Amino acid sequence: MTAVSDPYTPHTALSVNLNKVALVRNTRHLGIPSVTRAATLCLQAGAAGITVHPRPDERHIRAHDVHELAELLTAWPDREYNIEGNPFHNLMGFVAAVRPHQVTFVPDSEGQFTSDHGWNFPADAARLRPLIAQAQALGARVSLFMDAEPAAMAAAKAVGADRVELYTEPYAASWSTPQRVEQLDRFRAAAQAALDAGLGVNAGHDLNRDNLTAFLRTVPGVREVSIGHALMADALEMGYGATVAAYKHRIADAFA
Predict the structure, then answer these.
(1) Do the beta carbons of residue 135 and residue 174 sit within 8 Å?
(2) 102-145 pLDDT tens trace
(3) pLDDT given at position 26
(4) How large is the greatest C-alpha to C-alpha distance in the chain, in angstroms?
(5) Is the model's pTM score more than 0.85?
(6) What kind of architecture, by CATH, is found in domain 13-255?
């Protein structure tokens, strides 16, 4: 795929994570639900991109999905393909093979249930730097999955990252509690530190239709949210098209 620039956009892009579609498909040998069909319906509904996280054990997204989605997205040149994963496991082979627009480095262990923490600086700096450069040489924008720690953002920039993806589960977990204001302040400070360092800001993990608008109203400069679990849960009831439209409305409400 052709490398993309990183322009300023006044609104936040919605990238749909398809892992849970593949997870359901993998419980049988019938090929349904189809990952590529889900991607098509989400793109038709206006999703700005597709995200996958192909883990080494292929518990959900499998190698053929990565390649089939890359082929599908050639018909959508204005949309982006984001591949997440640990660059010390199986990720870099996919980056070399399909040349996604964006690659998100996530520090998961091989058997980890779900992503639950960001990279640690300075401990991870030396080993990340050459892999960031490698991915960029292949035409990908590089985003680092990071906890909302303002002091770490300059270090992420120093190793060559283009963006950070803020790990938003602590905010989501606080949604119905008095700690929500504290968490929003924390994420606002982290995003501002990233912007001040010259990084783009993405966000993801447990964002949903309830908590998304408040997050985007408070946290500055978020260029992309990657949403999978909640979006797919909503799609079971509403369908892909209506669900993507609903999330886009929540994003628009933040900028109204």
Answers:
(1) no
(2) 999 999 766 655 656 789 999 999 999 999 999 999 999 999 99
(3) 95
(4) 49
(5) yes
(6) Alpha-Beta Barrel (3.20)
In sequence order, the 6+-apart residues with CB closer than 8 A to the CB of 107 are 86, 117, 118, 119, 120, 124, 145
Lowest mean pLDDT segment, chosen from 4-8, 111-115, 156-160, 181-185:
4-8
Cβ-proximal residues to 201 (8 Å cutoff; 6+ apart), any chain: 163, 164, 166, 191, 194, 195, 219, 220, 221, 222, 223
Tokens of 156: 């992420």
Mean pLDDT, residues 184-195:
98
Residues assigned a catalytic role: 53, 84, 205
pLDDT in tens, 58-98: 899 999 999 999 999 999 999 999 999 999 999 999 999 99
Residue 65 phi/psi, 5-degree rounding, is -65, -45
Name residue, tokens 């639900």: 33
239 Cβ contact list (under 8 Å, min separation 6): 41
